[in-house]
Amino acid sequence: MTTAFPKAKAESWRTRVWRWGFNLFPAYRGTGGRVTYIAPDWKEVHVALPLNWRTRNYVGTIFGGSLYGAIDPIYMLMLIHTLGPGYIVWDKAATIRFRKPGKATLYARFGLSDEELGAIRTLTAQHPSVDRVYPVELVDKNGVVHASFEKTLYIRRKGVAS
């Protein structure tokens, strides 16, 4: 399976092993999604979601549960890896907007900037916890958006009560 997005940096051996393990993990494997790339610094992740017998719904398009399941844990894991062991990160809420039926493989690109990570560190130094909202889209190979999501994540420093 190929990805619709160019890879910024070659995967490290460690992120390649994480990707393999992630794709073999039964809870994620059941979504039908596949992680196709994890940047060595965990600031970028790519996911592909094919239309196949496991993801196809009654009307022949990608099942909505597969659409959401494929993107669900990604930002949480990215933040856990980029912020480090001094932080607690949990998914808090999500919204999904179905825009077009998925009739072919769909792709998502997740990214975290140094500015965003700095803002989180600054805010969690000033407040017990913060909520951050991250948009993500599932697109086809031509960049047409089939589903839009907003993921809200709860973040706090360890040892700080919220």
From TrEMBL:
InterPro entries: DUF4442 (IPR027961), HotDog_dom_sf (IPR029069). It holds the Pfam family DUF4442. This is DUF4442 domain-containing protein. The lineage of its organism: Bacteria, Thermotogati, Deinococcota, Deinococci, Thermales.
